[in-house]
Amino acid sequence: MGTTNTNTSDDTRQPEPDPARIESEPQLSHRISESDIDLSGTSTSTVRAPEDIISLEHHMATWREVVELSGADQAILFDDVINAVDEAQHAVFSGLPGYMRCCLPAAQMAVFVPTHIVTLTPPLPYEIQHSLESLERMGGDASNFHVWYNNPQTGERIDLVDLVIREDWDTYHTLVAYTCENPPEFNHEDYPQQVREIFEETREGYPTTLLLPFQIRELHRVDFAKEISSGEIVTLSPSDLFMSKGKTVHSLIQASPGVAQYFTSPRPVTLRRTAFDPELLNLLTERATNNIEGDSNLSLPLRFEDQQVSLPLSTFVSDDFQPSWNKELRAGITQSIAFLPSAIQYIDACESVERDGLKTYVKLNTSGVSGLDNLSPNTHPEIYNGTRAERIGAMAALLAKRFGEHDDIHLPTGSVEIRVSPGYDHLGKREFSIAGMNLSGRYAPLFFGRSVTSEGDIHEGMLACSDGAKIGMSVDEISRLVRMQQALAEAERLAGYETGELQNDSMIDEDSNRLFTYDFNNRRGGRSYIERVITLHPGTVFFDQDFSFTVPEDTTVHDFAIDLTRKAEANGLHSYGTPIIYYPETDEQGRKHVKLKLVSPVPDELLELCQSEGHTLPELMDNRVRRLLGQEKNLH
Hints:
alpha+beta, 34% helix
């Protein structure tokens, strides 16, 4: 059960944790009765027994405190998701104007203060219905909750919550239909302009407005510098510090050296291209063409800046290569040679780690969504094995394939890290997530999760629950994770990040029994959708999963989307991130495919089935959800 210490004296802060002792401290066992929970937000420390289920009361007390720490009288949320990643990744996101993930977080905020959402695309109506029902369950009032959308056809600003309350489905469906046919083009000025308009129109009687974008960055503080300077607008701590893992780790260790024990010591690698002699390219292309003779499993030996390199041709030519395909071969060699300096940096960093008898793990991207470019040894053994020349060549070819079409400004920063070898159980690799809030150096845990990944380190979904034991975590593991987060919260405070989300993905190495945090997710401006779902269902296990469906030929995208989400909500499945469903992909046959993000409760029998018969949870949940939605055969 979540609890809050109600001592409000300025001199009663908990002592700062000693990270050097943190692993050996005794397990927390303090329990406080329901009547001792303080929802006033005046607490100075949050005490929670690791073996307890995190309660709704604990969530509400935490968010009351966030509101009071900020001094907010009202809140404005918006999902400019493209600014939630480093500028180097903007091209990858294709200008998507924003995911609607803030309805449920805004509903919880609306329990305490009037809360407004500014959106460029309308969430589907069932998202708002679910948020209103949740707001009522949390003790809030619908009059505090607003979702503002500018109708692109009329220029009129509409409160979508009002449409749902009045059940004006014709107007709502018209808005969704128009959005499906006319997706907005992203413009960085769209959100600041509309947020400022809402701020000006709603500020009377509310001296201080809390801004919560998807991720709070310095650019938001620049956009609203005047209002922030005057105190009319406040934000939580900006998270630019956490855009790069290497920079994050360096900053936290500088602030609190003892937290170094939790990191896999990333060695940053800055990608760059290099120019090369066209005559050399002609020579290499000719030599490769003459020698390949229908066998693409060959390598091209060359010397680059006194480095011996063996460039694998199989990466960019097919098995049935013909000499007439000279253009394809030339393009592959060109891109690979350009990335040789970066490949050498990666292999140098790998060998530096390996000289200490440790295994390495390569990430091509450590800014924002690094999981998209993790290089698992299972799927890319060529960069971990072989001679130095072979590893450099394989790395250069891989970089060319991943980033060859990007211009230099969109090349991300990568890293080489110590590889952690976690244990496995019936749910797969034991990768843990722990999420919560940093409240001026104190940590308030809000949920536990497990990343479900394939053998190739492909993310397949996330298990989450307020009770870590339900997803295979021991009391000792939960205790260690909570203590680590407390140490990191204090390190963040010392580094300048005082109030905001603190979520890490972690593993315990089987060989050393050390707890490592390997990914930072402090990118959500102090809010997460799945956290709020768990708030309302303590002890229930949920699975966060992406689905893809083919739109039937006899229906429109918006009708299909509305029908899917209606069925989802009717079956206890919660959809979010709905604007991605408005922008279908079209295949070569002209069929349209839409994506849907769902958070679904996991029946106990499926968890037991994984344990007793070795079934994988993503497959079981995929089958179950498609059956509930009536989409069993829609398996795109």
